[in-house]
Protein backbone atom coordinates (compact mmCIF):
# COMPACT_ATOMS: atom_id res chain seq x y z
CA UNK A 1 0.00 0.00 0.00
CA UNK A 2 1.27 3.49 -0.88
CA UNK A 3 2.20 5.70 2.05
CA UNK A 4 3.69 8.64 0.17
CA UNK A 5 2.61 11.11 -2.44
CA UNK A 6 3.89 11.40 -5.98
CA UNK A 7 7.14 12.89 -4.75
CA UNK A 8 9.06 10.60 -2.43
CA UNK A 9 9.98 13.59 -0.28
CA UNK A 10 6.32 14.38 0.45
CA UNK A 11 4.84 11.90 2.97
CA UNK A 12 1.16 11.13 2.91
CA UNK A 13 -0.91 12.63 5.74
CA UNK A 14 -1.93 9.96 8.26
CA UNK A 15 -5.57 10.71 7.40
CA UNK A 16 -4.96 9.67 3.78
CA UNK A 17 -3.37 6.37 4.79
CA UNK A 18 -6.15 5.60 7.27
CA UNK A 19 -8.88 6.46 4.75
CA UNK A 20 -7.40 4.27 2.04
CA UNK A 21 -7.07 1.32 4.41
CA UNK A 22 -10.61 1.80 5.70
CA UNK A 23 -12.06 2.06 2.20
CA UNK A 24 -10.35 -1.19 1.16
CA UNK A 25 -11.69 -2.96 4.26
CA UNK A 26 -15.18 -1.69 3.41
CA UNK A 27 -14.93 -3.03 -0.14
CA UNK A 28 -13.83 -6.43 1.11
CA UNK A 29 -16.01 -6.96 4.18
CA UNK A 30 -19.20 -5.07 3.33
CA UNK A 31 -19.31 -5.05 -0.45
CA UNK A 32 -17.80 -8.51 -0.95
CA UNK A 33 -15.49 -7.33 -3.72
CA UNK A 34 -12.84 -9.71 -5.03
CA UNK A 35 -9.17 -9.23 -4.23
CA UNK A 36 -8.53 -8.19 -7.83
CA UNK A 37 -11.29 -5.55 -7.73
CA UNK A 38 -10.11 -4.16 -4.38
CA UNK A 39 -6.58 -3.78 -5.78
CA UNK A 40 -7.98 -1.81 -8.74
CA UNK A 41 -9.95 0.50 -6.41
CA UNK A 42 -6.91 0.91 -4.18
CA UNK A 43 -4.73 1.89 -7.13
CA UNK A 44 -7.28 4.46 -8.36
CA UNK A 45 -7.78 6.07 -4.95
CA UNK A 46 -4.02 6.13 -4.38
CA UNK A 47 -3.55 8.06 -7.63
CA UNK A 48 -6.40 10.43 -6.72
CA UNK A 49 -4.91 11.21 -3.30
CA UNK A 50 -1.46 11.59 -4.86
CA UNK A 51 -2.92 14.19 -7.22
CA UNK A 52 -4.73 15.92 -4.36
CA UNK A 53 -1.53 16.11 -2.35
CA UNK A 54 0.29 17.54 -5.35
CA UNK A 55 -2.46 20.17 -5.56
CA UNK A 56 -1.84 21.26 -1.98
CA UNK A 57 -4.66 19.22 -0.38
CA UNK A 58 -3.56 17.72 2.95
CA UNK A 59 -6.99 17.00 4.49
CA UNK A 60 -9.89 15.03 3.05
CA UNK A 61 -12.34 17.79 3.97
CA UNK A 62 -10.63 20.02 1.39
CA UNK A 63 -11.12 17.52 -1.44
CA UNK A 64 -13.50 19.33 -3.79
CA UNK A 65 -14.99 18.98 -7.27
CA UNK A 66 -12.25 21.03 -8.92
CA UNK A 67 -9.59 18.61 -7.64
CA UNK A 68 -11.54 15.60 -8.91
CA UNK A 69 -12.05 17.23 -12.30
CA UNK A 70 -8.39 18.22 -12.41
CA UNK A 71 -7.39 14.60 -11.74
CA UNK A 72 -9.59 13.27 -14.56
CA UNK A 73 -8.39 16.05 -16.83
CA UNK A 74 -4.78 15.10 -16.25
CA UNK A 75 -5.58 11.45 -16.95
CA UNK A 76 -7.38 12.43 -20.15
CA UNK A 77 -4.42 14.54 -21.30
CA UNK A 78 -2.13 11.55 -20.77
CA UNK A 79 -4.17 9.56 -23.30
CA UNK A 80 -6.24 7.39 -20.95
CA UNK A 81 -9.12 5.58 -22.68
CA UNK A 82 -12.68 6.72 -22.05
CA UNK A 83 -13.45 3.40 -20.37
CA UNK A 84 -10.56 3.98 -17.93
CA UNK A 85 -11.71 7.53 -17.16
CA UNK A 86 -15.25 6.30 -16.55
CA UNK A 87 -13.98 3.61 -14.18
CA UNK A 88 -11.83 6.05 -12.22
CA UNK A 89 -14.68 8.54 -11.95
CA UNK A 90 -16.82 5.73 -10.56
CA UNK A 91 -14.07 4.94 -8.05
CA UNK A 92 -13.94 8.59 -6.96
CA UNK A 93 -17.71 8.60 -6.43
CA UNK A 94 -17.57 5.36 -4.41
CA UNK A 95 -14.73 6.68 -2.27
CA UNK A 96 -16.49 10.00 -1.66
CA UNK A 97 -19.75 8.26 -0.74
CA UNK A 98 -17.90 6.07 1.74
CA UNK A 99 -15.99 9.02 3.21
CA UNK A 100 -19.24 10.95 3.68
CA UNK A 101 -20.84 7.96 5.40
CA UNK A 102 -17.83 7.68 7.71
CA UNK A 103 -18.07 11.45 8.41
CA UNK A 104 -14.56 12.02 7.10
CA UNK A 105 -16.01 14.76 4.88
CA UNK A 106 -19.09 16.92 5.36
CA UNK A 107 -20.07 17.25 1.69
CA UNK A 108 -19.76 14.89 -1.25
CA UNK A 109 -17.54 16.56 -3.89
CA UNK A 110 -18.25 13.85 -6.47
CA UNK A 111 -22.00 14.43 -6.83
CA UNK A 112 -21.53 16.48 -10.00
CA UNK A 113 -18.50 14.60 -11.27
CA UNK A 114 -18.94 13.42 -14.83
CA UNK A 115 -16.66 11.40 -17.06
CA UNK A 116 -16.91 10.34 -20.71
CA UNK A 117 -19.32 7.47 -21.15
CA UNK A 118 -17.71 4.12 -21.78
CA UNK A 119 -17.63 3.08 -25.40
CA UNK A 120 -20.05 0.23 -26.02
CA UNK A 121 -18.41 -2.01 -28.55
CA UNK A 122 -20.07 -5.13 -29.84
CA UNK A 123 -18.26 -8.21 -28.53
CA UNK A 124 -16.57 -10.69 -30.84
CA UNK A 125 -18.97 -13.57 -31.36
CA UNK A 126 -18.42 -16.98 -32.94
CA UNK A 127 -20.79 -18.22 -35.62
CA UNK A 128 -22.52 -21.52 -34.93
CA UNK A 129 -20.41 -23.22 -37.59
CA UNK A 130 -17.24 -21.96 -35.94
CA UNK A 131 -18.38 -23.35 -32.59
CA UNK A 132 -18.91 -26.76 -34.19
CA UNK A 133 -15.47 -26.59 -35.81
CA UNK A 134 -13.93 -25.65 -32.47
CA UNK A 135 -15.41 -28.63 -30.68
CA UNK A 136 -14.59 -31.08 -33.47
CA UNK A 137 -10.97 -30.07 -33.09
CA UNK A 138 -11.10 -30.55 -29.33
CA UNK A 139 -12.91 -33.87 -29.55
CA UNK A 140 -10.27 -35.21 -31.91
CA UNK A 141 -7.50 -34.09 -29.56
CA UNK A 142 -9.24 -35.68 -26.55
CA UNK A 143 -9.88 -38.99 -28.35
CA UNK A 144 -6.44 -40.28 -27.39
CA UNK A 145 -7.26 -39.84 -23.70
CA UNK A 146 -4.42 -37.46 -22.82
CA UNK A 147 -5.47 -35.88 -19.48
CA UNK A 148 -4.81 -32.24 -20.41
CA UNK A 149 -6.69 -32.62 -23.71
CA UNK A 150 -9.65 -34.11 -21.82
CA UNK A 151 -9.54 -31.22 -19.36
CA UNK A 152 -9.34 -28.58 -22.08
CA UNK A 153 -12.31 -30.03 -23.92
CA UNK A 154 -14.39 -30.15 -20.71
CA UNK A 155 -13.45 -26.58 -19.75
CA UNK A 156 -14.30 -25.12 -23.15
CA UNK A 157 -17.55 -27.10 -23.39
CA UNK A 158 -18.61 -25.71 -20.00
CA UNK A 159 -17.58 -22.17 -20.85
CA UNK A 160 -19.76 -22.18 -23.94
CA UNK A 161 -22.60 -24.25 -22.46
CA UNK A 162 -23.04 -22.08 -19.38
CA UNK A 163 -21.57 -18.70 -20.29
CA UNK A 164 -19.68 -18.60 -16.98
CA UNK A 165 -16.78 -16.21 -16.49
CA UNK A 166 -13.28 -17.66 -16.55
CA UNK A 167 -12.81 -16.88 -12.84
CA UNK A 168 -16.05 -18.68 -12.04
CA UNK A 169 -14.91 -21.72 -14.03
CA UNK A 170 -11.51 -21.97 -12.34
CA UNK A 171 -13.18 -21.71 -8.92
CA UNK A 172 -15.53 -24.65 -9.46
CA UNK A 173 -15.41 -27.68 -7.18
CA UNK A 174 -16.62 -31.17 -8.08
CA UNK A 175 -19.55 -30.80 -5.68
CA UNK A 176 -20.75 -27.76 -7.64
CA UNK A 177 -21.88 -30.15 -10.38
CA UNK A 178 -25.28 -31.81 -10.32
CA UNK A 179 -24.90 -34.43 -13.09
CA UNK A 180 -28.45 -35.75 -12.70
CA UNK A 181 -30.04 -32.36 -13.31
CA UNK A 182 -27.17 -31.17 -15.51
CA UNK A 183 -26.81 -27.93 -13.54
CA UNK A 184 -23.85 -26.05 -12.14
CA UNK A 185 -23.66 -24.04 -8.92
CA UNK A 186 -21.65 -20.90 -9.62
CA UNK A 187 -20.28 -18.32 -7.19
CA UNK A 188 -20.22 -15.07 -9.14
CA UNK A 189 -19.38 -11.42 -8.55
CA UNK A 190 -20.16 -10.13 -5.09
CA UNK A 191 -20.29 -13.73 -3.83
CA UNK A 192 -23.70 -14.15 -5.45
CA UNK A 193 -24.61 -17.77 -6.08
CA UNK A 194 -26.61 -18.90 -9.09
CA UNK A 195 -27.54 -22.20 -10.73
CA UNK A 196 -26.82 -22.61 -14.43
CA UNK A 197 -27.96 -25.47 -16.71
CA UNK A 198 -25.71 -27.14 -19.25
CA UNK A 199 -26.34 -29.53 -22.13
CA UNK A 200 -25.46 -33.11 -22.98
CA UNK A 201 -22.22 -32.39 -24.91
CA UNK A 202 -20.78 -30.54 -21.92
CA UNK A 203 -22.02 -33.28 -19.57
CA UNK A 204 -20.27 -35.97 -21.61
CA UNK A 205 -17.04 -33.98 -21.81
CA UNK A 206 -16.99 -33.31 -18.05
CA UNK A 207 -17.79 -36.93 -17.25
CA UNK A 208 -14.94 -38.07 -19.51
CA UNK A 209 -12.57 -35.68 -17.74
CA UNK A 210 -13.64 -36.89 -14.30
CA UNK A 211 -13.30 -40.57 -15.23
CA UNK A 212 -10.14 -40.57 -17.32
CA UNK A 213 -8.39 -37.22 -17.00
CA UNK A 214 -8.62 -35.85 -13.49
CA UNK A 215 -7.45 -39.05 -11.69
CA UNK A 216 -4.26 -38.97 -13.76
CA UNK A 217 -3.41 -35.43 -12.62
CA UNK A 218 -4.78 -35.43 -9.07
CA UNK A 219 -2.40 -35.06 -6.13
CA UNK A 220 -3.07 -34.69 -2.39
CA UNK A 221 -3.08 -30.90 -2.84
CA UNK A 222 -5.81 -31.03 -5.50
CA UNK A 223 -8.61 -30.80 -2.97
CA UNK A 224 -12.13 -30.60 -4.41
CA UNK A 225 -11.12 -28.50 -7.47
CA UNK A 226 -12.99 -29.56 -10.59
CA UNK A 227 -10.25 -28.60 -13.04
CA UNK A 228 -6.57 -29.16 -12.37
CA UNK A 229 -3.33 -27.88 -13.84
CA UNK A 230 -0.55 -30.18 -15.02
CA UNK A 231 0.91 -30.29 -11.49
CA UNK A 232 -2.40 -31.29 -9.95
CA UNK A 233 -3.36 -28.02 -8.32
CA UNK A 234 -6.48 -26.01 -9.15
CA UNK A 235 -6.25 -24.59 -12.65
CA UNK A 236 -5.75 -20.82 -12.68
CA UNK A 237 -7.37 -18.22 -14.91
CA UNK A 238 -4.19 -17.63 -16.89
CA UNK A 239 -4.07 -21.28 -17.96
CA UNK A 240 -7.71 -21.21 -19.06
CA UNK A 241 -7.17 -18.02 -21.05
CA UNK A 242 -4.16 -19.55 -22.77
CA UNK A 243 -6.10 -22.65 -23.81
CA UNK A 244 -9.00 -20.66 -25.27
CA UNK A 245 -6.78 -18.06 -26.95
CA UNK A 246 -4.83 -20.77 -28.77
CA UNK A 247 -8.02 -22.43 -29.98
CA UNK A 248 -9.57 -19.21 -31.24
CA UNK A 249 -6.38 -18.12 -32.99
CA UNK A 250 -6.62 -21.27 -35.11
CA UNK A 251 -10.12 -20.34 -36.33
CA UNK A 252 -10.23 -18.36 -39.57
CA UNK A 253 -12.32 -15.20 -40.02
CA UNK A 254 -13.19 -14.33 -36.43
CA UNK A 255 -12.59 -11.35 -34.15
CA UNK A 256 -13.41 -13.44 -31.08
CA UNK A 257 -10.57 -13.67 -28.56
CA UNK A 258 -10.27 -15.20 -25.10
CA UNK A 259 -12.73 -17.00 -22.80
CA UNK A 260 -15.12 -14.04 -22.69
CA UNK A 261 -15.78 -14.60 -26.39
CA UNK A 262 -17.37 -17.93 -25.47
CA UNK A 263 -19.55 -16.14 -22.91
CA UNK A 264 -20.56 -13.57 -25.53
CA UNK A 265 -21.24 -16.32 -28.05
CA UNK A 266 -23.35 -18.34 -25.62
CA UNK A 267 -25.49 -15.30 -24.75
CA UNK A 268 -25.95 -14.29 -28.38
CA UNK A 269 -26.82 -17.80 -29.53
CA UNK A 270 -29.35 -18.16 -26.71
CA UNK A 271 -31.08 -14.95 -27.78
CA UNK A 272 -30.88 -15.92 -31.45
CA UNK A 273 -32.61 -19.16 -30.49
CA UNK A 274 -35.47 -17.31 -28.80
CA UNK A 275 -34.40 -17.39 -25.15
CA UNK A 276 -36.04 -14.86 -22.84
CA UNK A 277 -33.82 -11.89 -21.97
CA UNK A 278 -34.48 -12.32 -18.25
CA UNK A 279 -33.47 -15.97 -18.42
CA UNK A 280 -30.21 -15.05 -20.16
CA UNK A 281 -29.60 -12.41 -17.49
CA UNK A 282 -29.99 -15.07 -14.79
CA UNK A 283 -27.72 -17.53 -16.59
CA UNK A 284 -24.96 -14.96 -17.05
CA UNK A 285 -25.29 -13.56 -13.53
CA UNK A 286 -25.73 -9.95 -14.63
CA UNK A 287 -26.98 -7.69 -11.85
CA UNK A 288 -28.50 -5.32 -14.41
CA UNK A 289 -30.70 -6.20 -17.37
CA UNK A 290 -29.06 -3.34 -19.28
CA UNK A 291 -25.82 -5.33 -19.38
CA UNK A 292 -27.60 -8.32 -20.89
CA UNK A 293 -29.29 -6.10 -23.46
CA UNK A 294 -25.92 -5.55 -25.12
CA UNK A 295 -26.35 -8.98 -26.66
CA UNK A 296 -29.68 -8.01 -28.20
CA UNK A 297 -27.73 -5.46 -30.25
CA UNK A 298 -25.51 -8.26 -31.51
CA UNK A 299 -28.54 -10.37 -32.40
CA UNK A 300 -30.29 -7.51 -34.19
CA UNK A 301 -27.11 -6.80 -36.12
CA UNK A 302 -27.02 -10.41 -37.26
CA UNK A 303 -30.70 -10.29 -38.18
CA UNK A 304 -30.11 -7.17 -40.26
CA UNK A 305 -27.15 -8.80 -42.00
CA UNK A 306 -29.18 -11.92 -42.81
CA UNK A 307 -32.02 -9.77 -44.11
CA UNK A 308 -29.66 -7.81 -46.36
CA UNK A 309 -28.24 -11.01 -47.81
CA UNK A 310 -31.51 -12.87 -48.28
CA UNK A 311 -34.31 -10.40 -49.03
CA UNK A 312 -34.70 -9.55 -52.74
CA UNK A 313 -35.56 -5.94 -51.97
CA UNK A 314 -33.27 -5.37 -49.02
UniProtKB/TrEMBL annotation:
Q: Which GO terms describe its biological process?
A: cell division; chromosome segregation; DNA transposition
Q: GO molecular function: any one?
A: tyrosine-based site-specific recombinase activity
- Keyword Mitochondrion attributed: no
Q: Where is the active site?
A: 165, 189, 260, 263, 286, 295 (o-(3'-phospho-dna)-tyrosine intermediate)
Domain (Tyr recombinase): give its ranges: 121-308
Where is this protein localized, as stated in its record? Cytoplasm
| Pfam families, alphabetized | Phage_int_SAM_1 (PF02899), Phage_integrase (PF00589)
InterPro entries given in the database record: CB, DNA_brk_join_enz, Integrase-like_cat_sf, Integrase_catalytic, Integrase_recombinase_N, Integrase_SAM-like_N, Tyrosine_recombinase_XerC/XerD, Tyrosine_recombinase_XerCD
Q: Which Gene3D superfamilies match?
A: 1.10.150.130, Intergrase catalytic core
A Gene Ontology term for the protein's cellular component: cytoplasm
Report keywords, A-Z: Cell cycle, Cell division, Chromosome partition, Cytoplasm, DNA integration, DNA recombination, DNA-binding
For the Core-binding (CB) domain, which residue ranges apply?
Answer: 14-100
Subunit structure as annotated in this protein's UniProt entry: Forms a cyclic heterotetrameric complex composed of two molecules of XerC and two molecules of XerD.
Tell me the protein family, please: Belongs to the 'phage' integrase family. XerC subfamily.
Q: What does this protein do?
A: Site-specific tyrosine recombinase, which acts by catalyzing the cutting and rejoining of the recombining DNA molecules. The XerC-XerD complex is essential to convert dimers of the bacterial chromosome into monomers to permit their segregation at cell division. It also contributes to the segregational stability of plasmids.
Per its record, how is this protein called by name?
Answer: Tyrosine recombinase XerC
Lineage runs: Bacteria, Bacillati, Actinomycetota, Actinomycetes, Micrococcales
Q: Which gene encodes it?
A: xerC
Amino acid sequence: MRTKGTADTVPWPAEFRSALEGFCRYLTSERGRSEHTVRAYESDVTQLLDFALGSGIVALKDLDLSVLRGWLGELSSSGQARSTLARRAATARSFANWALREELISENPALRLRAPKKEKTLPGVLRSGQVEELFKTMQAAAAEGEPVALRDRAMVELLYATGVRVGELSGLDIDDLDPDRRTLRVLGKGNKERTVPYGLPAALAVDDWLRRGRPALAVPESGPALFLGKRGRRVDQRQVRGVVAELLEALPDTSATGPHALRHSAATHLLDGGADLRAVQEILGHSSLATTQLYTHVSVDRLRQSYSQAHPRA
